[in-house]
Design brief:
heterodimer; A: mainly alpha; globular; B: alpha/beta; five-stranded antiparallel β-sheet
Chain lengths: 314, 264
């Protein structure tokens, strides 16, 4: 038989146990505080959301989505607003996503790491935090007056794209940095060029993270009001932009880009600033629609990220 | 110029470093005037304590250091029979990597299918023909003794393989492009003993087709598989000789101390 180790005296053991107990108390305290903070935040949001739903409940029917705004609250709907929002976001998407990904890839993969790169990095991060009204003013001066694009869907889309760009760039760079160095080296070691590595490895592996950034950026853009007001979106609009899709060749047209428009948050803002209570109900319903859209988008981001992570391991 | 076929130790030299110095971006000198030859169809093992520069030396052979700005080489690595100095500025590192492939310490398959992993080197060389790709992938997987285990699941993701299988997949990937030299950077240090034996046997088969330079922490491994062994210390080459010679009768005291475990 092996010799038994010196048995610890009972006093020692009790000391160890009480020490562990004391340390575990800290675990419990931290977890409890965290729970409290999270619960209060979530509950606030849920109450807010429920309040909107209850207030706007009478408006949750198809007519609300298929009617133009009207002087009579009961007949007013958000048709022009949700179509306007969709078209503006379409422009934003097609401008901000390619530019943002390209900028992120360039900064991570190609740009020399020097003071200039640091400067750009600081600026991009700062841009993500600039108040959106500043973007609105910039857009008013640049797109509306200098480029003469008018108070159009194109202007609004470009403005929101500016707002969204830093988010896409930052998330692209973070997703690229998460790719382990040994995977990169493996690709270079078989004779790949930088462009091969970017195209075959960096972008596919960073795709989940990039997409998350894109969706979160879009979710932010959909709720933006200030810059859209600054560039002069209409608040009462009883017509739709020309349809982007046509029944005959070439099937798509771009006239809608030049059209006046309104978006959901502006419609909401317009209604809430009226004295009649009936319009406040419309505003609440619109608010609920915006929150639901945002929630769907964020949910999609989480789901996509999860799907990609399941397929990519290193 | 006639392609020179240099000989020493009665074997043909495939590549050799001449007065190779290497400096990392922070100014540290990792290699000091290293003169070392790699012989055709032989396994050359680099041994030495951590930080002695053996991995740095290995990674010079496929210009891996060029991926990080500020690193600097001095001296030459001549690749025969065409006498190309692969460290020359005018030689594209990509050209070097097309001729000299590498297997890393940690198995690093791409998060793609088994097939795509092996085919990747061919794809970056512009090979598009499905039949050629299929044939070469099969050949490479057979060469890496992995074909039997994966032939029914070529389109499964590579990370579902075991560690040893992943490393053999990485060997297949490096093999598919028919390199002249294959570099191994401690290829078995992350593997269990059985997988290690598999890889070692594989290397002995591979040297029929190409030349091998391997860095290893494991002296028994160097003794088992290599034809030549080089002992490095503090960035310098201390001794380079036939493996039998080094392990039975080293000419330098430092080498003997390291091998017998008195040091390192």
């Amino acid at each position: 038989m092996a010799q038994q180790g010196k048995a610890k005296s009972l006093k020692d053991l009790n000391e160890i146990r009480s020490l562990i107990k004391k340390h575990k108390k800290n675990d419990f305290l931290f977890a409890a505080t965290g729970m409290f903070v999270i619960a209060s935040l979530t509950i606030t949001l849920i109450i807010l959301f429920l309040d909107l739903i209850i207030d706007g409940y009478p408006k949750f029917n198809l007519d609300f989505f298929s009617n133009y705004p009207s002087r009579r609250a009961a007949r007013a709907g958000i048709l022009s607003a949700w179509i306007g929002s969709s078209l503006v976001l379409l422009v934003t998407f097609f401008v901000a996503v390619p530019l943002g990904i390209a900028a992120g890839v360039y900064l991570e993969e190609y740009a020399k790491k020097n003071w200039f790169a640091d400067l750009i990095e600081i600026n991009v991060s700062n841009l993500a935090g600039v108040p959106s009204i500043i973007y609105g003013l910039l857009a008013l001066g640049l797109f509306v007056y200098t480029f003469d694009l008018g108070q159009s869907i194109l202007t609004a889309g470009l403005t929101l794209a500016l707002l969204m760009l830093p988010i896409v760039i930052v998330s692209t760079r973070e997703a690229i940095r998460a790719i382990p160095i040994h995977i990169r080296e493996a690709a270079f070691a078989v004779g790949a060029t930088k462009w091969h590595v970017v195209l075959h490895h960096v972008i596919p592996y960073a795709y989940g993270g990039i997409l998350t950034g894109v969706i979160i950026g879009m979710a932010r853009a959909i709720g933006e009001t200030a810059p859209i007001i600054t560039i002069g979106a209409l608040t009462f609009i009883a017509f739709l932009p020309p349809s982007p899709i046509m029944p005959e060749v070439p099937f798509i047209n771009f006239e809608w880009l030049d059209s006046g428009f309104t978006v959901l948050p502006i419609q909401m803002f317009n209604w809430i600033s009226r004295p009649q209570h009936a319009f406040h109900i419309n505003a609440a319903a619109t608010g609920a629609v915006i929150i639901i859209l945002t929630a769907i988008m964020n949910g999609a981001a989480i789901k996509l990220r999860y799907n990609v992570r399941k397929k990519i391991k290193w | 110029m006639v392609a020179s076929k240099k000989k020493r130790f009665n074997d043909t030299i495939k590549a050799e470093s001449k007065d190779l110095d290497f400096y990392y971006a922070d100014g540290t000198q990792a290699l000091k005037k290293v003169n070392l030859a790699v012989y055709e169809n032989k396994i050359t093992a680099l041994i030495g304590p951590s930080g002695c520069g053996k991995s740095t030396f290995l990674r010079s052979f496929n210009r891996m250091h060029d991926l990080y700005p500020g690193n600097r080489y001095d001296g030459q690595i001549i690749l025969y029979p065409d006498n190309t100095n692969i460290l020359a500025k005018k030689v594209d590192p990509i050209e070097v990597r097309m001729r000299i492939s590498m297997v890393f310490q940690k198995p690093n398959p791409f998060p793609k299918s088994i097939y795509e992993n092996v085919a990747y080197g061919l794809r970056v060389r512009g090979e598009r023909n499905k039949h050629t790709l299929d044939d070469k992938v099969e050949e490479a997987l057979k060469g890496a003794s992995l074909w039997e285990e994966v032939k029914d699941r070529l389109y499964d993701l590579a990370f579902n393989l075991s560690g040893g299988q992943q490393q053999r997949l990485c060997i297949a990937r490096a093999l598919a492009t028919e390199p002249e030299i294959m570099l191994f950077d401690e290829p078995t240090s992350a593997l269990d003993p059985i997988a290690t034996v598999n890889i070692e046997e594989l290397m002995s088969e591979l040297k029929e087709k190409l030349s091998i330079l391997i860095v290893t922490h494991n002296m028994q491994q160097a003794a088992r598989i290599s034809d030549y062994t080089a002992y490095m210390y503090l960035g310098e080459l201390v001794e380079h000789d036939l493996t039998d010679q080094i392990f039975t009768n080293p000419s330098k005291k430092e080498t003997e101390d390291y091998i017998t475990g008195k040091f390192g």
